[in-house]
UniProtKB/TrEMBL annotation:
<dbReference type="InterPro" id="IPR001789">
    <property type="entry name" value="Sig_transdc_resp-reg_receiver"/>
</dbReference>
<feature type="modified residue" description="4-aspartylphosphate">
    <location>
        <position position="55"/>
    </location>
</feature>
<keyword id="KW-0597">Phosphoprotein</keyword>
<protein>
    <submittedName>
        <fullName>Response regulator transcription factor</fullName>
    </submittedName>
</protein>
<dbReference type="InterPro" id="IPR046947">
    <property type="entry name" value="LytR-like"/>
</dbReference>
<feature type="domain" description="Response regulatory">
    <location>
        <begin position="4"/>
        <end position="115"/>
    </location>
</feature>
<feature type="domain" description="HTH LytTR-type">
    <location>
        <begin position="137"/>
        <end position="241"/>
    </location>
</feature>
<dbReference type="InterPro" id="IPR011006">
    <property type="entry name" value="CheY-like_superfamily"/>
</dbReference>
<dbReference type="GO" id="GO:0000156">
    <property type="term" value="F:phosphorelay response regulator activity"/>
</dbReference>
<dbReference type="Pfam" id="PF00072">
    <property type="entry name" value="Response_reg"/>
</dbReference>
<dbReference type="GO" id="GO:0003677">
    <property type="term" value="F:DNA binding"/>
</dbReference>
<dbReference type="InterPro" id="IPR007492">
    <property type="entry name" value="LytTR_DNA-bd_dom"/>
</dbReference>
<dbReference type="Pfam" id="PF04397">
    <property type="entry name" value="LytTR"/>
</dbReference>
Amino acid sequence: MKIRAVIVEDSRLARNELKELIKLHDDLELIGEASNVDEGVVLIESESPDLLFLDINMPEKDGFDLLEMLDDVPITVFTTAYDEYAIKSFEYNALDYLLKPVSNKRFDMALEKVRAKMVSKQEDNSSAKKLTKNSQIFIKDGEACWLVKIGDISLFEIVGNYTRVFFEDKKPMLYKSLNQVEEKLPEDSFFRANRQQIINTNYIENVVPWFNGKLKLTMKNGEEVEVSRRQSYIFKDKMSL
């Protein structure tokens, strides 16, 4: 299994260091590198890599800005020269982080996590054109940032021109419309309940009949969702109710 990797790093010395470490592993293939965020976005969108080695602290735009610009975030390993960034990276659900200069041992440990993650992603046989339950999206709301697996999201909800995302006990804003989000979601687990909300059917706690042929759903996080009459018929068929 070849792991196709890209590097986005403003330091040529750091890029060369990573390239030498990559050469030591037969299952790693470097397919491109970029020295800034804008180049990195173009590279990632054109090549769709499995793995991204991403410098956090870059001039003008940083690594978090890059993640926010992507629809589908590759497996991400942050690289940084600063301890405070390394600690914060866990808050953003990065797979791992590497402190510069990167040692062979620490690189190998990160790569083992990447391999395990790749196996998990390969087990998902959903359409390649859509996100899968193991795909990640990056959400930045104010100063808080998250890398969130699609399968961990229970509900999407319209708020003006944007979308509120429900996962764990969090409800951050995603700066995309609900229609944009819906186009990418796996149809086997996500359902448009009404004009305002899309639910993850794996997070439904309870279903009860409601007024005028509608259904009312209670989600595992306690949120209540009213399914429109038209969508209620489709939902019953989909769920064999």
